[in-house]
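re the bet — no i am not wrong, look at it urself. input seq straight from the record:
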Amino acid sequence: MILNPNDRVVVFIDGSNLYAAIRSLGFDFDYKKLLAFFRDRCRLLRAYYFTALGDDQEYSPIRPLVDWLAYNGYSVVTKPIKEYVDPATGNKRTKGNMDIEIAVSMLTMAPHYDHAVLFSGDGDFRSIVEAVQNQGKLVTVVSSLLTHPPMIADELRRQADQFIELDSIRDDLTRRNA
């Protein structure tokens, strides 16, 4: 990953997208190492983690991670998962998309950073990447082509100033057993 040591960097993590990628790649992701990775290479201003949470659940499997991240240097942005009935099938479905929250944060933080790093492969982010690039910002997208199917949308990969294959930085971001 090419980072200028003087660049002010903000990391934006699409929690569900990153989770799906690391699960598919089969490695034990270390969020503490992610912060160290960027702090060693640039001026990390902030690392955001975005995820939807179920409010009605007594225990959410993601809650311990979200709490840990909030106490260990991440700015955590959450919203409740919405339930709805699919009109076509009548089945109950859930929705917890964080795209708008990520896009708004990328745009509102743009005056403060030189380089945005987006951990997501969602093609819906192509327009916001272009918008912050039009403000003179660099955007690196971290996702994976090696998952089946690939987690990175081709249009997002082409729009980014730099695409980093998540698996290529696996050694820097994997939890080690003691």
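see?? The chain is about 35% helix and 25% strand. told u. also Residues 94 and 143 are 24 Å apart (CA to CA). so pay up
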